[in-house]
What does this fold into?
Amino acid sequence: GVSKVITHAHTHTRTSASL
It folds into this structure.
């Protein structure tokens, strides 16, 4: 639910930062 969305968003941001 919400937790999954937050985790996904965090992962996406982290990946973008790495790139």
In short: The two ends are 27 Å apart (CA to CA).
